[in-house]
Amino acid sequence: MAKTAPRGRSLPAHVDVLIVGAGLSGLGVASHLTTKQPGRTFAIVDGRDAIGGTWDLFRYPGLRSDSDMHTFGYAFKPWRNKNAIADGHEILAYLHETIEEYRLASKIHLGHKVTAAAFSTATGLWSVTMERVADRASVEITCNWLFSAAGYYDYSGGHTPELPGRGEFTGEIVHPQSWPEDLDYTDKKVVVIGSGATAVTLIPAMARQAGHITMLQRSPTYVIAVPKQDPIANALSRLLPARTAYRATRAFNINRVRAIYGASQRYPNAVRRLIRSANRRALPDGFDVDTHFNPTYNPWDQRMCTVPDGDLFASLSSGKASIVTDEIVRLTPNGIRLASGDELAADIIVTATGLRMLPYGGIELSVDDVPVDLHNSLAYKAMMVSGVPNFAFALGYTNSSWTLKVDLVAEHLCRLLAHMDRLGQAVAVPVADDDPSKERRPLFDMKAGYLQRSSHLFPQQGSDGPWTMPQVYAVDRDRLRDGPVEDPALRLSTPTAAPVRTEAVPV
């Protein structure tokens, strides 16, 4: 069980920046504000009773990062652990260190779920409504800027497809997002439905205790082995000062991942052959690689799965785990009947079938009493929404480490706030060109099912200028870190300021 962060004192009635979400993104943005905008007030609120977001919510066996921590960690805080692919508890420890080092504990207010936020152009303020989870009381505060660090999925539950015969199955069905603490799978027959990052994490972790575990996939995913400990990073850490070694490793890994992604886009057949060859070497002779590890799509059309030290392949090789590529017909009292006619026996079924997407934590946004139509809006510089003043968000990369984008967005926000201060402006709103000939595209360009199912809930991206949502760190770095803050599409103004409450809200 993760330790909870100390609760903040009393929730302020007003802050300059309200950050929604006390996970990796929210704590990162708060740290940037602390160092780059030291005179600005902010608070972090979260509906849960513990910090960490994803890394506290998920409790399934083997929980770990699927990116190296030298790029998944913050730019400003070196990752000092020897494990480059980190377990969930190691990531939580890193976040608690961040809270302590940047003195964020008093800024964190847990158990406050934001339900609605209304912006007034007359006052230049957001009125934010929260539910205090402990007693269901409604609490309202104001802020100049609202920042969504809530990620992009629904914390209330994951996605589980229709499973005919579900009521007939006599065993237990669990989703990784709602993992029971008392689930005993010792010597049990377990079937994990799915082939994504969660499934390839669960299989080797559960295989140690389960009688047998089977990964049941409808279609294969690209899976590549990576070292749990990065030999280059650990060598540099012995030779160089910690921050220098971290920066060097981070730069090297950013470029390495980008090179792999670029090669996958330009030479998909060659990359496919390389991955297939590596899979063959990692698995026993005669293993049917072409059935179980040969996706129909090209490399990086969907996110690749990484397995530290090849642990998934080791589990398959040992016989403790197996993989079946087939389609489900229905559940039976004792397992799963497949399209091939076979039946998989199961005591426990784990539905590692993906996430439910939810933009900005499900906050109901409005501007001057008009609800924001997110899907008809455009993302501006991959961090703001057209027509919505003083609102920013962080959504990480789909083809690289999430936190790379968080750092860039936080840096750009701090630069924008400083720029507005210099000009004496208080409101910033992106204004999109209404030219009907301009192309619009889904915000996420990856073909993963969970993204495709929910693209209608999110803003869209345009075809050029600040309205694109590039999944390219170098492009975002040039635009957000090094590029100008001023932009013709970003309108700055100064409203007639209204009095701001200064008394604290009881907690």
What does this molecule look like?
This protein has 507 residues and is α/β, with parallel strands linked by helices. The chain folds into 2 domains: 13-156 and 356-505, FAD/NAD(P)-binding domain, CATH 3.50.50; 166-231 and 281-351, FAD/NAD(P)-binding domain. It is 28% helix and 23% strand. Helix 1 (24-36) links the parallel strand 2 and strand 3. The longest helix is centred in the middle third of the chain and has 25 residues, at 242-266. The radius of gyration is 24 Å and the shape is globular. Its cofactor is FAD. One of its GO terms (molecular function) is monooxygenase activity.
Mean pLDDT comes to: 92
Report the C-alpha radius of gyration, rounded.
24 Å
Gross geometry:
globular
Q: What name goes with the CATH superfamily of the largest domain?
A: FAD/NAD(P)-binding domain
Share in β-strands: 15-25%
The total strand number stands at 27
**Runs with pLDDT <50, length 5+?**
1-8
Distance between the termini: 25 Å
* Assembly context of the chains: single chain
Query: What about the largest sheet?
Result: 9 strands, mixed
- Which bin fits the share of residues in helices? 25-40%
Q: Classify the fold: give the CATH topology of the largest domain.
A: FAD/NAD(P)-binding domain
Top CATH class of the largest domain: Alpha Beta
Task: Return the CATH architecture of the largest domain.
Answer: 3-Layer(bba) Sandwich
Structural class: alpha/beta
EC number: 1.14.13.-
Keywords: Monooxygenase, Oxidoreductase
Pfam family, one: Pyr_redox_3
GO molecular function: monooxygenase activity
